[in-house]
Specification:
The protein is of the alpha+beta class and about 150 residues long. It has 3 helices and 7 strands, in the order αββαβββαββ. The chain is about 25% helix and about 20% strand. A hairpin with a 5-residue loop joins strand 6 (about 130-135) and strand 7 (about 140-145).
Length: about 150
């Protein structure tokens, strides 16, 4: 059963972002398909059947608004907007997930790549890094970090 805005801070945040941008909340649905889902869905749901022909246009506008509001991975699929990688509704408001990305070349398997990445992560010679940081409602941004004392 889809979760509602009252039980899901991410749904509330998405609705607030769409409302702040001037979208008519009575003509859209925002939901998590089930409690365990790690994504949200936004769908145009017009009050009048006469405006269903605007579905793709409205969903494209929703996706654009959401990307500007921080849900950079919001995907316009025509019939709906898909927002992946949204933390669970029980995630504490001041919780962030941070992921460091690095390309590892010339290794034989995933374990070797992970070992090499971990080694580089603690290498004092590496003084800068880029992180993808996601907040408790699924908004992501890239953050640059530097350690000037180590360079």
């Amino acid at each position: 059963m889809p979760t509602t805005a009252q039980a899901d801070p991410a749904i509330s945040a998405v609705r607030a972002a769409l409302d702040a941008a001037g979208h008519e909340l009575s003509e859209l649905l925002v939901f998590r398909p089930d409690l365990g889902a790690t994504h949200l869905v936004v769908r145009y749901n017009p009050l009048s059947s006469d405006t269903w022909d605007l579905e793709e246009e409205q969903n494209a506008a929703f996706a654009k608004t959401l990307r500007r509001a921080g849900w950079e991975s919001a995907i316009d699929l025509g019939a709906l907007v898909f927002i992946p990688d949204v933390p669970a509704p029980s995630t504490a408001p001041r919780t962030f997930h941070a992921a460091w990305h690095i390309a590892i070349d010339d290794v034989d398997d995933a374990q070797q790549a992970a070992d090499e990445a971990r080694g580089r992560q603690v290498d004092l010679g590496i003084t800068e890094s880029l992180w993808t940081v996601t907040d408790a409602v699924g908004r992501s941004r890239t953050v640059h970090c530097s350690d000037p004392d180590l360079s």
